[in-house]
TrEMBL record, chains A, B:
One Pfam match: AIRS
Binding site for substrate: 267, 319
PANTHER family, A to Z: THIAMINE-MONOPHOSPHATE KINASE (PTHR30270)
InterPro entries: PurM-like_C_dom (IPR010918), PurM-like_C_sf (IPR036676), PurM-like_N (IPR016188), PurM-like_N_sf (IPR036921), ThiL-like (IPR006283)
Name assigned to this protein: Thiamine-monophosphate kinase
Ligand binding (Mg(2+) 2): 50, 78
Binding site for Mg(2+) 1: 50, 126
Source organism per UniProt: Thermogladius calderae (strain DSM 22663 / VKM B-2946 / 1633)
Pathway: Cofactor biosynthesis; thiamine diphosphate biosynthesis; thiamine diphosphate from thiamine phosphate: step 1/1
Annotated ranges, domain PurM-like N-terminal: 44-142
Amino acid sequence: MKLGELTERLFIEGVLRNYLGKRPPFSRLGFPDDAVDFLPLAPRIVVSVDASSIASVKLPWRSLGDAAWAIATGAVSDHIAKGSRPAYALVSLGLSPDLDLSEAKAIVRGLSEAFNYYGVSWVGGDTNSSRDPWISVTMIGFTTAKRPPPRSGARPGDAVVVTGRYGAMGYVALRGVEEASRTTWVVEKTRRPLVDVRVGTVIALNYKSIHASMDVSDGLGFTIMEISRLSGVGFRVEKPPLVFKEVYELCEGRLQCLYELSLNGGEEYGVVMTVSKEGLGNVVEDLESYGVEYEVIGEVVEGSGLKLEGVNKVAIYGWDQFGGYVKSA
Amino acid sequence: MKLGELTERLFIEGVLRNYLGKRPPFSRLGFPDDAVDFLPLAPRIVVSVDASSIASVKLPWRSLGDAAWAIATGAVSDHIAKGSRPAYALVSLGLSPDLDLSEAKAIVRGLSEAFNYYGVSWVGGDTNSSRDPWISVTMIGFTTAKRPPPRSGARPGDAVVVTGRYGAMGYVALRGVEEASRTTWVVEKTRRPLVDVRVGTVIALNYKSIHASMDVSDGLGFTIMEISRLSGVGFRVEKPPLVFKEVYELCEGRLQCLYELSLNGGEEYGVVMTVSKEGLGNVVEDLESYGVEYEVIGEVVEGSGLKLEGVNKVAIYGWDQFGGYVKSA
């Protein structure tokens, strides 16, 4: 059955509403109202919106549910990098009337599985007709941090801390989708990207010493270049971030190879943060105590751009929604 | 120049950022961060998301800017009906790389003009590539009301108050887009729909006596049927809402004609509220003191559905995103 035959109303009432979470405490509005209401769970409210056409995240080995999961994860990631605990999601969906109900259900289920995994309650949204299906996730979070770290706050002397493991999406970007689809570990690591929400807690606890922070949604190299550009500083990188063990094997220890695979990619959803020298000890202690995967890869310096120690220049590409892959360094 | 040639980055930095408003007070994040942060402006926070493909609101006499205005107005309207003052907007845009920069600018300008008109600050968002361009507006508002009125709270005995003027979009729905495009007053009244934000203040002030409230985005008849269905009550309507003077002339006073044109349509963005008998005097006094256009059209009764006094049955259609126009009564 196609959505056009089912009608929007029956899709909302028969499918979507089953995935909606409980209303926030003391809330009075919710499904099927056009808006949701809540009282703040922490002094500062953080809101983001992160959207994508489904086609653009639909790697061949991702099901529609996997693609939806990836989009929901991207929305969570924006909060983590700012020290915010994501709490409530509103989802705006553009689906084609020609879409099979089973496919629409797979999309909704993928979103719901991701929200459940991250402890986010899906509280509302909007459905629309679109010939090029898309998902826009509005995420509402809360933070106790008085100053959530922006992209633009890096200062010379800061240590550069990178959370997460890299190299799988770099493999896709550099070797192509064809070869990646035959490489089991790449498929496994990229099917449903994950965010470590504990990183957000560490950032909220250490906001005074974390001068800049940005999530790695468009590639680690691109992320570093963005912080560099917006902060008016340079980055000296002395070692690669953590990579998957298959990347170590593949690179046979060659630094150039490790940088190429870890700096390119996207959707890794680790965080790049720059931390004052005085604050680094506490940040590292907190990351360790939560068991977060991280590496201190270098430091912020005067100047601009990214200098990699011990290797030739590594080309870095970023994804541009209108222009496709563009070189950023 | 096409967006694909310009790149997303230059579109954001060269065009979009010029339309962003000031950061909220005490905010630390904002353009170009992925999230915005703010402190609450009133005890209760209200968030909605309202999206649309541009094609679906692009009446032939609407420019792209008018279409964008209409979508922004729809997002404001959801707040007004809940007694919320809309304050901050995040806009998720899906635009085609083939779109001319001038057209993209017209869309952004239309959104910005609407937000300025309603006193909303455009604080962030997301840009995406889409072959079927769309706009999703996340609106954040605040209310002092302890219980914002839901769709589902109508009680027998309540008076039915309808704000706004009707008939122009009914003309489009019943006579068709062709004839409407040759009818000057219809074109003028529907090009850029307007919401009266003072209605939201009246609702916040009178939340104790306003049992149900819903904005008229999909037609007045459909709105009444929705409140009826969700509240488990019926509506007895004794007179039509306010209509444009051209509708009175057109109908030559015939009640059937007045109901047909006022109950069908959409995007009128008035509000239907049901008000306790005891509270009606205060609500009317507040609406009068603000100069809001309204009519008390009838009352809520036991039972279900919509009974129009003095006329035969009037067919009511609602817009279904997947199914198109569907009959709701």
